[in-house]
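Box 3.1. Reading complex inputs
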Amino acid sequence: MFRICMGYVNDHDWAKDIAQETFVTIWQQLPKFRNESAIGTWIFRIASNHCLRQIERQNKMPRSEMPEQLEDHIEPNREPQVQFLYKCIAELPETDRLIISLELEDVKQAEIAKIVGLTETNIRVKVHRIKERLAKKFENYEH
Amino acid sequence: MSTNIDLKNLWNKQATSDMPDIKELLTKADNLKKRARHKLIGLNLVLLATTAIMIYMWFNIDNELLTTKIGLVLIVVAIVSFLAVSNQIMPILFRSDFEGSSQEYLDQLIRIKRKEDFLNKVMINIYFTLLSAGLGLYMLQFIARMSTVWAVTYVVLTFGWIGFFWFYFRPRSVKKKQKPLIEMIAKLEEVNRQLGDGD
């Protein structure tokens, strides 16, 4: 769950906050959970929606206005390639970030479709395009 | 596709955050709730104080005219409705449900923000209308007792003040509340469109 949030915002502390908020929601809503969907789908839905909710916060404090040093000091020793991947993902359109994060987290595409609210075909096409886009970025990065 | 394996591999190398301490988290959530409750208590105190002042004025000032009383009531209604809507009803109306799909959630957020925008406009207008009308009516009795010169000065000043309120403060407060909402609606719609993009 943390990695999904991390893919969305690419900011360690921020991702941690989102993961915690998600956790509280899950804890509070758990008694209401009916087995209409798989528990995994349900949890990922809550996490994804908490990520999307950050749009409200982004509007209050645009990321570009955050001091650079702040971003540096919260990066706990990551490999440059890993950093680059998360950076690329965080630069994608919001919903693509969620889709690729779920895909990389090994969530089945049928499940992703249910989480995001699109058809499975749609998800397959989107995942394919996003991967192509990331692959291209990596090519440029390595050369 | 080799990139596929690479991506997954890299993705999984990201250290995850430690499992949060659930007790601490719930205490935090509880504290937030408590703070909200305190705010509500504060709001009620303000309401009570306002009403008390109004009641005091009702009984202690010689209100011969019905208009004075109506004026007082209108002012109280204006203040009470404004505070109640902005502090109590708004958050209940605009609470979002996290359990739907992303698309449903985005639709819901857009709906909520539109509603908020509408209610803001309506509420600010109602507030200013009631307050101006209340103030105007309340003044009538006192103006009637004054000499013509004083009465005219008073009327000009009062209505000048109300006009300033209506034509300067009202549009400004509407705009101030509206700007971030409109920006957010635009952003949410843009994100929602991503889900429909050319597939």
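In summary: Residues 62-73 of chain A have pLDDT under 50 and may be disordered.
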